[in-house]
Design goal:
The structure is a single chain. By secondary structure, the protein is mainly alpha-helical. The protein folds into 2 domains: about 40 residues, no CATH class; about 270 residues, no CATH class. It contains 10 helices and 5 strands. The strands form 2 sheets. The chain has a 3-stranded antiparallel sheet with strand order 2-3-5. Strand 2 and strand 3 form a beta hairpin. The longest helix is centred in the middle third of the chain and has 34 residues.
Length: about 300
């Protein structure tokens, strides 16, 4: 049987690097330069630099926004820490999760830089945005009892936008799989240009619809409903994506079944949050419990990403 092997040899060719990311081989000896070139994926160095700059700019812009918000509410944060003796416990559990997410994003970007596989880029963006979103979530936890309802409504709207941006990379990947499935019934989707256009139209439509809904939300009840709708629908789609990829033997660089189980658990965790909140109230114990559950779920997802599929 022909196995899919990894081959890291690189050949410079003008401004491009010919890199074999994944080569079908049934031999253990190194391939010659001509063999590598015949299987090669050409990586344009100029485009690679532009892509890295864009990712760095994205990270800097989002980080700056979150840090700026912390600066605005610094006095309220200090007041909450002073008045709540267990505030540092909340900060600690958030720090653990944010640290894991940042480490995961750095690893994903490293994998992407090494071979420029789009899957690693999408995972990197997902974990990076989720980390910054959790940092913003910590801000909301620290100022919730220190500001008025109008401010909480504004912060909730920003939080929903973070949720939308966080899920976009996975939704993008999900739409790609959906179009792959539909391409059997609609052969026109096999055209790469048509497929890319359709994907971006769907992504932009989902994004703008969600943002308009957030902007028009009149109160915290409506924003809570929007968060539930966006979270349940997006996580359901993402969980389906990985189970579908496993059935079709796609995404061999990860283990889609384990990742799918992780995202399904993430969905269950997100749905159960309001139940725990009703039972426990918006307390420190509630925050510690739900964040600990999410850390366990994150560990399952990362375990699946770190293991290659056996097909």
């Amino acid at each position: 049987m022909i196995k899919v092997g990894e081959y890291n040899n690189k050949i410079k060719k003008g401004n491009s690097t010919i890199t074999k990311i994944s080569v079908p081989v049934n031999i253990d000896r190194p391939l010659s330069p001509k063999q590598v070139e015949s299987y090669a994926v050409v990586k344009d160095e100029n485009k690679s630099k532009v892509a890295k700059i864009l990712v760095l700019a994205y990270a800097i812009i989002l980080s700056t926004i979150v840090i700026f918000m912390y600066g605005i509410y610094a006095s309220q944060i200090s007041a909450q820490i002073a008045s709540e003796e267990r505030a540092w416990s909340v900060i600690g559990i958030f720090a653990v999760r944010i640290g894991l997410l940042l480490a995961a994003s750095i690893y994903m970007f490293y994998k992407w830089f090494d071979g420029f596989n789009t899957t690693w880029l999408l995972f990197g963006l997902f974990f990076l945005t989720l980390a910054l979103g959790k940092l913003f979530g910590l801000l909301m936890n620290l100022v919730f009892f220190q500001v008025d309802e109008a401010t909480i409504l504004t912060l909730s709207r920003i939080r929903i936008i973070f949720v939308i941006i966080t899920m976009l990379p996975m939704i993008y990947l999900s739409i790609k799989m959906i179009l792959l499935y539909l391409s059997k019934k609609y052969p026109s989707l096999n055209d790469p240009t048509r497929e890319i256009e359709t994907r971006w139209v769907l992504i932009l439509s989902i994004t703008f619809s969600a943002i308009i809904g957030v902007a028009l939300a009149p109160n915290l009840v409506v924003t809570g409903i929007l968060v539930a709708i966006i979270t349940i629908s997006s996580l359901s789609m993402v969980a389906w994506l990985f189970f579908f990829a496993h059935r079709r033997e796609k995404l061999p660089e990860i283990n889609p079944r384990i990742v799918g189980i992780g995202f399904l658990a993430y969905l269950v965790s997100s749905v159960s949050r309001p139940v725990f909140q009703v039972l426990m109230g918006l307390t420190v114990n509630f925050t510690l419990l739900v964040e600990t559950i999410d850390i366990i779920v994150l560990a399952v997802i990362l375990y699946g990403i770190g293991r290659e599929a056996k097909y």
